[in-house]
Specification:
This protein has 363 residues and is of the alpha/beta class. The chain is 34% helix and 15% strand. It has twelve helices and 13 strands. The structure holds calcium ion.
Length: 363
């Protein structure tokens, strides 16, 4: 009898620890543009570094070239991270910007890639002064296929199963150019074996009308069913217009995200996505006093609806912390543990992995 009870207890202990291991594996580290805190964003070296740091998913922002190739690049502009203005001085549009959509892949491959900069008083000023120095070493832009092959190759050589987390940038802009970027990206994902919800892939976008089309038209037509994430931004911030709505008469107006922050939004979102990627202040009330976290309506509702929550962007650089966190580890604790988000986008995947390991929330 005693033995039986011990076996039963042992069984419970094993089951409990298995459960914890499964839970632990659930907290995700998403390497935002790779290990972009240490190497120029989205370069293959930044992706290899994030992989080696133990990230669960590596992020790809994707835009299309003039000749319909898919490249990994955050903006649909080339001028903030390359020498395009020196190599092709006359190829900007009326707004002064150089659009990836106006260049062929061969042209883009001639460009040198560097840490993000701004032009201030006619001079290039590095955005994050403490990061990898501008114009050092040699970096180039690559295709989505190149990156997937590198990640799958590293999975093969290490025995790991690191995922991809693909964002289509400005599908509405591509549509104005007669291009269907979402369909093109899905075709690549299918070619490389990412077709089911259990595959290690997330498909993310700010473009809500396009994401709904992906869910309701493209995925069924392509016999695919992968995890979708609605990215959410602050539409009151007119500096960042992520999405334009194309009206039947061809006119454009900014897409308003405000409904996503209102009560009842999570129920509507769960009709077409598996999770949300909100700006982090949309998860934790900015008025939260230190040590007592208050979730927003969006975060509370998303949990009730079973939507995954992957906020962005967690940066350890000086001046990037919210007032309620003393240091980066506390910011991670507030979100991973107190707010209990499922994963988060960070430029510093090593710090997130180390934090989770210390708290037994990551293998
Ligand atoms: Ca992104």
């Amino acid at each position: 009898m005693q033995t039986q009870r011990n076996i039963l207890l042992a069984g419970i202990v094993v089951a409990t620890s298995l459960f914890s291991a499964a839970q632990a594996a659930d907290k995700l580290v998403i390497a935002h543009r790779g290990a972009s805190g240490y190497l120029p964003e989205h370069t293959l070296p930044a992706k290899a570094m994030a992989f080696a740091m133990g990230a669960d998913y590596l992020e790809q922002d994707v835009v299309m070239t003039k000749d319909d190739k898919l490249i990994v690049l955050h903006d649909h502009y080339l001028d903030r991270v390359t020498d395009v203005a020196q190599k092709f001085p006359h190829r900007h549009r009326r707004d002064g910007r150089y659009y990836a959509l106006d260049f062929t892949l061969d042209e883009i491959k001639t460009l040198r890639f560097t840490e993000e900069f701004r032009i201030e008083n006619g001079r290039q000023q590095q955005k994050f002064a403490n990061r990898f120095p501008m114009w050092k070493s040699e970096f180039r832009i690559h295709t989505l296929q190149d990156e997937i092959e590198m990640i799958q190759g590293m999975n093969h050589s290490t025995g790991r199963d690191v995922g991809i987390y693909v964002e289509t940038k400005a599908p509405w802009l591509h549509k104005l150019e007669g291009k269907d970027i979402s369909k093109a990206v899905l075709e690549v994902l299918r070619d490389y074996g990412y077709t089911k919800k259990t595959d290690k892939v997330y498909f993310q976008s700010f473009d809500a009308p396009d994401l709904e089309r992906v869910k309701k038209e493209l995925l069924p037509a392509m016999n695919m069913n992968i995890k979708l994430i609605q990215l959410i931004t602050n539409s009151d911030d007119q500096k960042v217009i992520e999405t334009m709505v194309i009206h039947p008469d061809g006119s454009l107006t900014p897409y308003s995200y405000s409904w996503m922050l209102q009560p009842g939004a999570a129920a509507k979102l769960s009709e077409y996505v598996d999770g949300i990627g909100p700006w982090y202040p949309m998860v934790v009330q900015s008025s939260s006093p230190s040590g007592r976290v208050e979730l927003t309506t969006l975060a509370k509702e998303a949990k009730r609806q079973g939507l995954q929550i992957h906020p962005y962007t967690f940066r350890a650089d000086p001046g990037q912390l919210p007032s309620y966190a003393r240091d980066f580890d506390e910011m991670l604790r507030i979100f991973y543990i107190e707010a209990d988000v499922d994963g988060l986008f960070t430029d510093f995947p090593d710090k997130s992995v180390q934090f989770l390991q210390k708290n037994r929330l990551h293998r």
